[in-house]
Amino acid sequence: MESTDLFRAARRALRGAPWGASIVTVADEPSGTGPVMTSTAHELPEQGHVELGSVSKAVTGLLLHDAVDRGVLSTGDRLADHLPLDGCAAGEVTLASLAVHASGLPRLPRVEDVLGRTWRMLRRGENPYGDSVEELLEQTRRTAVGRPRPAYSNLGFELLGHAVAAAQGTTYAALVRDRMADPLGLGSWHVPADLAEVRPGAIAGRSRRGRPHEPWTGEGLGPAGGLRSTLGDAARWVTALLEGRVPGAGALDPVARLSGPVRIGAGWMVTPVPDGEITWHNGMTGGHAAFVGLDRRRRSGVVVVRAVARPVDAVGMRLLRDLGRRAAGD
């Protein structure tokens, strides 16, 4: 099956908005990693960068494990060990529970004017996430913590990423740059705190109904949904993941059950498929969608992005399935 055949269904499914898809396959050789084959199809401006949304959580999981591997912190640490959250329930939550969405924290913190933010996002396409880390921490102090159980939490990953950064005396954006982007040559990666920090080349996104949408920026948001990347750099990151060159790769290994058959590592979801399993994360912002998936056994991966808030998971999973069939000679 040629790469053009693999992309045919993706083109049909993604048309109508700027989109891109990359397939990466790393060949095995007796001496170790063999040649890397990358195929890409897209309708994106050259060097245009998109919002990866919650794929940022997968990066945060890697940064957590990287810090643990270097002895900077332990997954048994509490949030209050690294952030000024003493005296509130969230401060007692462990980093391990945050990494698998089982901390008891709600999806979002208790925020003033939440209805107003939501209305402005839906009606005007405004960014609902502009909070600083200090504002996020103040919201967290007002937020109740429920019974620890599997429940997806944006708040949990925001706090996790900022705790990992604080333990190293830096900011989350700088940590991404220093431990991930620069070592791997991902020059487009950045985590803007506000519109002024969004670099030239940003691809404008649209809501599900086609309404223009502001970029989602915010210092507080960063570890859970603030990362931006070109398609090419996202594919280079997938290559590094498949080759084992990414710091904190233990984050990919599942350690708990999230929902049904889906297990979770540090942020990374693992879903069984008939001939193996897929390790993945998706992302959705007000104007963008993204999917990153790995078939680690076959050493193949995909990236799918689209500048409209419509899920692209099915496209990514189909590409991985078709890659598997090609590898099996079906």
From TrEMBL:
Residues 49-306 form the Beta-lactamase-related domain. This is Unannotated protein. It holds the Pfam family Beta-lactamase. Residues 204-225 are annotated as: Disordered. It comes from freshwater metagenome. The lineage of its organism: unclassified sequences, metagenomes, ecological metagenomes.
